[in-house]
Every structure is written in structure tokens, then in C-alpha cells.
Backbone:
């Protein structure tokens, strides 16, 4: 989402729009230029409908986000895409009921908007010239949505909000309905098994969406194909993440610490780190002061940057990441907690402390290595050069389409 533009920030949540959003505006402009209306007026009306529709989508995502924040789940951003919106949750809550409430909040917002818009639509109809020439019926209301008018706009938004709510309630994981299904299943079975079932049902739904999209390629089918792709790929990614957490929850931080790990000192030069990185497996090094207190971390990325900008004679203390910016965990925590903390903070390193004493450093490379070994043993997989891979901790969990 690096090409997204931040529109505004509210409740600590950034609302972003992806560059591809312009495609849906172009589609809206062209789709409303047919018939007997002025092409320019039709195009402007089509763009207005799309913009108001995505206001509703944004409110849908805020439904998820605000309930998630109520349960202390951080939501850094909401991103608007041509296929809808995505609220980025740094994690899903451990309790199935909380996930259920977060997932259902979005569709409930759409139902609430429809309830608010419906009387306004009837009021606008009764005061419009159409009421005397076009009796109130579904066919006439549908015809009104095709021409620029206040009645048509309100009816359009009312019907669209109902459609959004119903569509999102389909059990197509990781859409809202799929998350609701997983939450309900997780109340009676393990979270991993519930996720696997939800992903399977979601992929079956994705196949149905894809078939519908192919058969209706000239009537909005491309959008359905994109949604099918999102569901198929997104569901598989989240299943891998859930399975990874299940593996890592069984391992304590103390078991993953390397007693022989090398340390650097503030008095040393970057050239010392170069020597170590060339002769050891380590990529990140804890930095200690002369009194043995942990004061920072020197990562491979920081080291390379220092060599480019300051040279090998620069002091380590001047190029390290300060200890205040490095998250901490206890040796009694499990590796799943460490991994989640890395995701929440954007750090690839976590300092392990107990009672103020620094015990060592856990890196994302350490977690990946443990996952490959333990994950392979648990699944009785055949060893390979690549091995099982830990999903990126930079991928936020998402909800809503």
C-alpha cells in the first residue's frame, strides 16, 4: 500500500486511498453517461454516486475499527480500493466473541445507514415531480436510479448499503461473513481448525464468485473476479499466519535465546561489527555500555547504512537503534507474543529482559529459524532446502471488503 494517499486521520486511524481508486471513478463516470441525459451531467452524477458509496464503505470500516479499538486492538489505517475498503488490524483478538463483534460491526453500520436513508428517499420521492407520473414500485424506483436526481441518489445509496451488508455477510473468509463463521466455529473447536474450515468455505465461495465473474464479464464481472482473487489468496495467507502462531505459542522465549550471541560495545567502531558479521551467523547485535547495560541494537541494515554514510571508523553508539526504540519481552513469554510485538512496533528485534537485566536479543530471523525446525517436526514434513516459511510479520490482518 506504499502508493496510497492519506486523506485524513481520525480516532488515531489514517484513512488512505490507493492510486487505483481513480479507476472506479472513471467507471462511475462512464456508466452514468448513457440514455438521454447530458453526458457531462451524467458523468458528474456517476462520480458523485461512487464517492458517496465509498463514504458508506469508509463508515463500514470504521465500524470494524472502533469495535477493535474498544478491545485494545490497534488499527493503524483504513485503505480504500476499487473493490472496497480494508481496515488493517495489527492482530485479531484471542476471544472468538470479540472477533465476532468486530466482524459483524461493519455490516450493521450498512444496515443502520439504510434505515436512515430509506425515509429520506420516500420523503424526496413524495416531494418530487416523479410521484405524480411514476407510481411507487420497484421497477420505477430502479429507473429513477439511472437518471440524475435526489430521489435516485437516495434510493441508490439505500439499496447499495443493504447489498453491501448482505454481500459482506456471505461466509467468504477473510470477508466479514467468513470471520463471523470462524468466530462461531472457534467457540467449539481450536482456533486453527476453525480457521482451516473457514478458509475452505471461503475458497469455495471464491470459486463461485469467479465463475459468476467469468459468465458476466461484460456486466461488472471483472470486479467479482478481483474479489474472488482477494478471498482465495487472503484466506490462505491468514491460515498460514494462524498456524504459525499455533507453533510459536508452544515455545518460550528462554528456549530460543542464544547464550553465545556476540555483543558490541559503545566504545567500539563500526569496523568491529563488520568483522563480526563476516565471521558469524548473526545479523543484529545488542550494544552495551562499559557498565554492561543494554543501550541499543545495531542491525545489518543500520550497519550497511553507516558504512555508506559514515565509513568503518564511525562509532557504534552513533549509528545504533537506541534501547528506548526496541520493544521488550520477558523470557517467560512465548515466541508468538514476541512475533506479535514485532508486528505492532515494526521492529525486527525484541530485547529480552527480566527484572531490568538484559538477557539477550530475539530477531525475526531467530523466530523464522525456530519455526522452520519446530514446524517441520510437528508436520512431519520432509526436509528441503527452503523449508516452511514464517509469514511476514509486516502483513496486517484485515477485515472487510
Residues:
Amino acid at each position: 500500500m506504499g502508493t496510497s494517499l492519506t486523506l485524513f486521520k481520525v480516532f488515531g486511524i489514517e484513512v488512505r486511498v490507493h492510486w487505483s481508486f481513480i479507476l472506479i471513478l472513471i467507471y462511475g463516470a462512464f456508466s452514468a453517461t448513457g440514455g438521454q441525459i447530458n453526458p457531462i451531467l451524467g458523468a458528474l452524477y456517476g462520480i458523485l454516486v461512487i464517492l458517496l458509496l465509498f463514504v458508506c464503505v469508509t463508515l463500514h470500516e470504521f465500524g470494524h475499527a472502533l469495535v477493535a479499538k474498544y478491545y485494545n486492538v490497534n488499527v493503524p489505517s483504513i485503505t480504500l480500493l476499487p473493490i472496497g475498503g480494508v481496515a488493517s488490524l495489527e492482530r485479531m483478538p484471542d476471544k472468538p466473541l470479540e472477533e465476532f463483534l468486530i466482524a459483524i460491526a461493519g455490516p450493521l453500520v450498512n444496515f443502520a445507514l439504510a434505515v436512515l436513508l430509506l425515509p429520506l428517499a420516500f420523503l424526496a420521492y413524495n416531494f418530487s415531480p416523479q410521484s405524480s407520473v411514476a407510481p411507487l414500485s420497484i421497477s420505477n424506483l430502479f429507473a429513477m436510479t439511472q437518471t440524475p436526481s435526489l430521489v435516485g441518489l437516495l434510493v441508490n445509496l439505500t439499496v447499495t448499503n443493504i447489498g453491501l451488508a448482505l454481500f459482506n455477510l456471505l461466509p467468504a473468509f477473510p470477508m466479514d461473513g467468513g470471520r463471523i463463521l470462524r468466530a462461531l466455529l472457534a467457540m467449539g473447536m481450536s482456533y486453527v481448525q476453525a480457521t482451516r474450515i473457514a478458509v475452505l468455505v471461503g475458497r469455495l465461495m471464491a470459486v463461485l464468485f469467479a465463475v459468476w465473474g467469468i459468465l458476466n464479464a461484460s456486466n461488472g464481472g471483472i470486479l467479482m473476479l478481483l474479489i474472488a482473487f482477494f478471498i482465495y489468496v487472503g484466506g490462505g495467507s491468514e491460515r498460514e499466519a494462524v498456524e504459525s502462531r499455533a507453533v510459536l505459542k508452544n515455545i518460550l522465549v528462554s528456549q530460543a535465546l542464544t547464550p553465545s550471541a556476540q555483543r558490541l560495545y559503545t566504545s567500539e567502531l563500526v569496523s568491529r561489527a563488520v568483522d563480526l558479521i563476516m565471521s558469524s551467523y548473526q545479523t543484529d547485535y545488542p550494544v552495551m555500555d562499559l557498565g554492561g547495560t543494554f543501550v541499543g541494537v545495531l542491525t545489518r541494515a543500520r550497519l550497511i547504512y553507516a558504512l555508506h554514510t559514515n565509513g568503518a571508523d564511525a562509532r557504534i553508539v552513533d549509528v545504533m537503534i537506541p534501547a528506548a526504540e526496541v520493544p521488550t519481552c520477558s523470557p517467560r513469554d512465548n515466541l508468538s507474543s514476541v512475533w506479535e510485538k514485532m508486528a505492532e512496533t515494526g521492529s525486527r528485534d525484541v530485547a529480552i529482559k527480566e527484572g531490568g537485566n538484559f538477557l539477550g536479543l530475539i530477531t525475526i530471523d531467530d523466530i523464522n529459524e525456530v519455526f522452520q525446525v519446530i514446524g517441520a517436526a510437528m508436520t512431519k514434513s520432509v526436509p528441503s532446502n527452503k523449508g516452511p516459511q514464517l509469514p511476514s510479520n509486516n502483513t496486517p490482518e484485515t477485515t472487510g471488503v
